[in-house]
Design goal:
By secondary structure, this protein is mainly beta.
């Protein structure tokens, strides 16, 4: 038997490996080289999107020298997440101060805030309107098998814990549908009234608060959110070397707790809504102590001048004179003027992390909610977009199959998720190797879906948008077509960044 030269054997093996590989389009060069036609679509920055309402995209035929069977087409969109819609204030009407959200699981949603009057703020000198005497009545509510009473507030009920006297801090409300709320009473005290975030760990709520205001995060571990009593106060959780806090906490799938925290070292925070261009990041194995600082996730500082200036905070000495002998803080002056962010809240969807927070831009300082994203919490985050007006102090959560963005303003926001409708796809196959498509699948709408991950509040499962191709016959070449329709009323549109056609052989 005559042996083939080694180089020919190697080339043959390499060709076999290449022909069996998946076909992926995910870079600017890929999109440019693989698109045959793009009607009504713009191809730029490594993505393709409709220029107006509709667009149709067709790839070139992706050919191989051997017959292959297609398995699936998976389509991924931009992570910018502009798909938000305004909604009425989320949660109880009398929930005051910055809202904090906690999803424990399906039909088990919590909000924390101050227990307010539910009345509009009075103008200076204006007297409070007398409230009629309210007599509570026994009530029942689907999903709750505990004694309940009606309250003067619509869609709100008192559980036994909610009848206990407040302690000057945050209270807890629970809902099964994000519409009706059951008040369970206090979860923090007067000295711990600056609550910033909450997480769920092994059946316990970790409720984080600043003490004093805008300083080191402390934590309660609450094993019973129903009893109307604060949990065990564990004291300081994060010893932050900088001033500023308003921290957001998120637990990763390995069980480590991450904190994103304001760092005021480069800015006169009192002049910029107590926010900063710089955010800190620290990690702990348990969320209670042992936090170690990593590189900043957000760092939009301008040029340092080397000049040190000061500002004064109104609460530090007043609230914690034992540890703060002065309320004056130093910072390094930076030029030109800087963007400022803060009051951080985090969520992760299928491994893609998002940070929501205050956004105080340069110039006019019209505040809003801004957000950033990263495929890793250990890497730098990139700016996405902004929404709303006013100082938001936001929090974000997944509930009832969608995402809720709560603020301390009158308008909140809801989203079906980062995926933007409408995307339809079909795939064709060349069965006889003549570089022409012989058979197509039917057009089918595809979309991502999201779900809870048991034991995690802010880690959300993502099922990708995909088209099953198992019924398509084997062939030598394949072509993909997409129909994109901007179906939303908001500024979002379907922006396709990646397509992968996978094969079984």
């Amino acid at each position: 038997m005559k042996l083939l030269p080694l180089a020919i054997v190697a080339a043959a093996l390499m060709g076999s490996q290449l022909s069996a590989a998946d076909w992926t389009i995910d870079s600017a060069e890929d999109w440019t080289q693989n698109i045959e036609s793009a009607e009504g679509a713009a191809i730029a920055d490594g993505s393709v999107a409709p220029k107006a309402k509709h667009a149709t995209i067709a790839t070139k035929v992706h050919a191989s020298d051997v017959k292959r069977s297609a398995k699936s087409l998976v389509v991924s969109q931009s992570a910018v997440w502009q798909n938000w819609n305004p909604t009425e204030n989320l949660g109880p009407v009398n929930l005051a101060d910055a809202p904090v959200l906690l999803t424990i699981g399906p039909d088990n949603y919590w909000m924390f805030g101050r227990y307010g009057s539910g009345q509009p703020k009075r103008k200076r000198g204006q007297k409070a309107k007398p409230q009629p005497v309210f007599k509570p009545k026994t009530a029942t509510l689907d999903g709750f098998d505990i004694p309940l009473q009606t309250t003067r507030f619509a869609n709100q009920f008192n559980a036994p814990g909610g009848l206990k006297r407040g302690k000057g801090g945050y209270h807890a409300w629970q809902s099964r549908d994000m519409k009706s709320w059951v008040h369970h009473g206090p979860v923090t005290e007067g000295f711990s009234k600056w609550v910033t975030s909450a997480e769920w760990v092994d059946g316990k709520a970790l409720i984080y608060y600043d003490f004093p205001n805008d300083q080191d995060p402390h934590v309660y571990v609450d094993e019973d959110l129903f009893d109307g009593e604060p949990g065990k106060n564990m004291g300081i959780a994060v010893k932050d070397p900088s001033h500023g806090s308003d921290a957001g906490f998120i637990r990763d799938l390995n069980g480590n707790m991450h904190v994103i925290i304001e760092d005021w070292s480069p800015i006169s925070a009192n002049k910029r809504s107590w926010d900063s261009p710089l955010a800190g990041h620290a990690v702990s194995p348990n969320g209670i102590n042992g936090f170690e600082f990593k590189k900043p996730p957000v760092d939009n500082r301008t040029q340092p001048t080397g000049k040190i200036a000061t500002y004064k905070h109104p609460h530090w000495v007043k609230e914690d004179p034992k540890n703060y002998t002065t309320s004056v803080a130093e910072y390094e002056v930076h030029e030109p003027e800087q963007e400022a962010y803060g009051d951080w809240a985090a969520i992760c969807i299928g491994g893609q992390y998002y940070l929501f927070g205050d956004y105080d831009p340069v110039g006019g300082h019209q505040m809003s909610v801004g957000w950033f994203t990263s495929s890793s919490i250990d890497e730098s985050f990139t700016w996405c977009d902004k929404i709303g007006k006013g100082h938001p102090d936001p929090d974000v959560a997944f509930a009832e199959g969608q995402f809720y963005l709560a603020t301390q303003q009158k308008t909140d926001f809801v989203s079906p998720g980062p995926w933007v409708e409408t995307v339809e796809a079909r795939v064709g196959v060349d069965t006889d190797n003549d570089q022409k498509i012989d058979q197509w699948t039917e057009w089918k709408q595809i979309k991502e879906s999201y779900d809870y991950i048991h034991g995690f509040s802010k880690q959300i499962a993502r099922t990708p948008a995909q088209l099953d191709l198992s019924e398509l016959p084997a062939g030598f070449g394949f072509q993909t077509q997409l129909r994109l329709t901007d179906s939303t009323e908001n500024k979002s549109k379907p922006i396709i960044e990646r397509m992968t056609l996978s094969f079984t052989e």
